[in-house]
Specification:
Blueprint: H1 2-24, H2 26-64, E1 69-72, H3 98-105, E2 110-125, E3 128-138, H4 142-145, E4 149-153, H5 158-163, E5 167-171, H6 172-179, E6 188-191, E7 194-203, E8 216-220, H7 221-228, E9 236-241, H8 247-265, E10 277-279, H9 281-324, H10 326-334, H11 339-375, H12 384-411, H13 414-419
Parallel strand pairs: 3-8, 5-7
Antiparallel strand pairs: 1-9, 1-10, 2-3, 2-6, 2-9, 4-7, 5-8, 6-7
């Protein structure tokens, strides 16, 4: 018990001395604390953002179901492409046609085939105008693959989707922008000067991948092409395998059937590369991780620079502290203080300096996370591991960079230290 009390007393004394050093050497201590704070801030803020993005990505994929996959004219590619067909062979891929889509719907392993086409339009209601609203075209299978929360009103029917009826389901944000507190159901809005009847309002599950909450309308894909001027060549498909299949094999069986059907429909030989892309959620996750993994590494490297700057400051201020307290160290050694006691005291002092910087960095990082969550589509939150890593990194920095001056203090000869002026 006595040893514990002695150690706690040494810690308290080290903290007190560190605080005195901060007050007496404000500039040097401030630069040291700033370097540590910047490093910790970067770790915390980036971790909070990526944690929020991860949750957003998981929510997006969960909304479409774990077995849903996508068919696109173009693959997810990071190859060197200058826009020519020689360097970008996939530019020669033909667009998906209605005959191919109808053939996919007849496959026994397919539950639903949802068409999707993204476009933009000028949306107007009376004197209120949204100059660049998002308009998405879907088939009626939209409600099967990714069931929207429509209230009030309803989603469009198979018949309306097939005939290209000019009906629209709008987000709550678009309803507020166009109609204020008024009831939007049954009202007629103009999209690129084409009239559309609002038949429903739905909750947009906005996320990082979808670009956040924004004024948006969903219309039948055929109406988007005929009346708003969208290009059918940009259309993609979301395909949901039949639920009656074995869940562990459903996606693979459906992918095999879709691939065979499209290649057969296009008359492709076995040796030819497919002129379309099958994109699974695994592939999307892999692409996502490759992008944000590299981004995270770069940010950690930048935070490391901040910690090194702070560490150099720790060395400088601690060396000055050792020099200024040489006689004090001599007195302590003459009274029986061991090398370990002196070493411990100076390491506690160094860790206190970095701890102050870490606390400031954590606080500013928390403010940044709140700002990201409130002003961007990223639902940022600080994971506990980020706090532990930030505090651990600051403590390790203090110990590593404080070891040199602490060792110097511990090795001082008491006689020589007492003679120091």
């Amino acid at each position: 018990m006595r040893a514990i009390n002695t150690r706690m007393s040494a810690v308290a004394e080290g903290v007190r001395i560190a605080l005195d050093a901060v007050r007496s050497n404000k500039v040097r201590a401030g630069l040291t604390i700033l370097g540590i704070a910047v490093g910790v801030f970067v770790v915390v803020a980036i971790s909070a953002a990526i944690h929020g993005i991860n949750k957003s990505v998981a929510k997006d994929f969960a909304s479409t179901g774990p077995t849903t996959f996508f068919v696109s004219r173009y693959p997810i590619s990071f190859e060197n492409c200058d826009g020519s067909e020689n360097s970008c062979k996939w530019l020669r891929n033909p667009p998906l046609r209605q005959g191919e889509i109808a053939a996919l719907r007849r496959l026994p392993t397919i539950e639903a085939v949802g068409e999707r086409l993204d476009w933009g339009a000028k949306v107007r209601y009376r004197t209120t105008e949204l100059s660049s609203a998002s308009v998405e075209g879907y088939s009626a299978d939209w409600t099967t693959i990714n069931a929207p929360e429509v209230y009030p009103g309803r989603a469009f029917t198979q018949a309306e989707a097939r005939t290209g009826a000019r009906v629209a389901v709008i987000t709550r944000l678009m309803a507020e922008r166009l109609f204020g507190e008024g009831d939007p159901i049954g009202r007629t809005i103009s999209m690129n000067d084409a009239p559309f009847e609002v038949i429903g309002v739905y909750k947009d599950n906005s996320s990082f991948l979808s670009g956040g909450e924004r004024p948006k309308a969903v219309v039948p894909v055929s109406a988007l092409i005929r009346h708003i001027g969208a290009r059918e060549s940009n259309m993609g498909l979301a395909i949901k395998p039949r639920e009656s299949l074995d869940p562990s094999l459903a996606r693979e069986l459906a992918i095999d059937d879709v691939t065979a059907a499209l290649r057969g429909f296009r008359g492709m030989r076995p040796s030819q590369e497919s002129s379309f892309a099958i994109i699974t959620q695994d592939k999307l996750f892999e692409t996502y991780n490759s992008i944000f993994g590299m981004f995270f590494i770069v940010m950690i490297a930048l935070s490391g620079v901040g910690l090194i700057v702070g560490g150099v400051g720790v060395v400088a201020i601690m060396m000055i502290s050792v020099t200024e307290r040489t006689r004090e160290i001599g007195v302590r050694k003459a009274l029986g203080a061991t090398r370990a006691t002196i070493l411990w005291q100076f390491l506690v002092e160094a860790a206190t300096l970095t701890g102050i910087g870490a606390a400031i960095g954590l606080f500013v990082g928390w403010i940044a996370a709140v700002g990201i969550r409130n002003f961007t589509p990223i639902n940022a939150s600080i994971p506990p591991t980020a706090v532990v890593v930030a505090l651990g990194a600051s403590a390790v920095t203090g110990i590593l960079f404080g070891m040199l001056p602490a060792s110097r203090a511990a090795r001082l000869d008491p006689v020589e230290a007492l003679r120091y002026e």
